[in-house]
Amino acid sequence: MNKTVICSFIGNDKTGIVELLAKTVSDCSGNWLESSMAKLAGHFAGIIRVSIDEEKVGSLRFALNELAKNGLSIQLALPDSESANGCLNAASAERALQLTIIGNDRPGIVYEVSQALVAAKINVVNMQTHLSSAPMSGDSLFHSTMSLTNENELDLDALELQLEKIAERLSIEIDLEGPAG
Fold it and tell me: What's the whole-model pTM score?
């Protein structure tokens, strides 16, 4: 029976980290299902979802932990089988939301927006952020895209109003695209 293993890692950025992780997963007969990785401030970090025969989980855990010798810090998680399928079910897909943020960078943007999402009982399932230079001034612009799901009844108007207040207070743009349908 296959088991899902989630592996997060961080280490100094250098050529070959992905190959080293992929070789380790392959050598243990694991199947690399999905991942997200990025270089941040001279470090390379990421998270990987692997499917592996339940009997080989221990050998994968040992092999990944051996990568500390190569300067990688590794953490593993074994999610329960219900939450490990990695797919949105049809009902969740119907309640999927997309949120984008852009504005002058400042502390607290993610915190304030995430507070509003938690209050609305919305789960962030994917989040990407980055900085860029504003075209004329060169000031730092903060960009974020989030994929969200909601398992409960959602007052979309109330959420949009709350996000508008945050956008106005922080002088940023927030765009919420409602449930697909």
Answer: 0.74
The residue among 179, 177, 141 whose CA lies nearest residue 160 is: 177
Q: At what angle do helices 156-170 and 109-119 cross, to 10 degrees?
A: 160
CA–CA distances in Å: residue 129 to residues 22, 34, 83, 103:
25, 19, 25, 12
Q: Which of 160, 151, 105 is nearest to 130 (CA)?
A: 105
Cβ contacts of residue 59 below 8 Å, gap of 6+? 28
Distance CA(95)–CA(178), nearest Å, equals 8
Topology classification of domain 2-80: Alpha-Beta Plaits (3.30.70)
**CATH architecture group of domain 92-177:** 2-Layer Sandwich (3.30)
* pLDDT per position as a tens digit, 98-140: 999 999 999 999 999 999 999 999 999 999 999 999 888 888 9
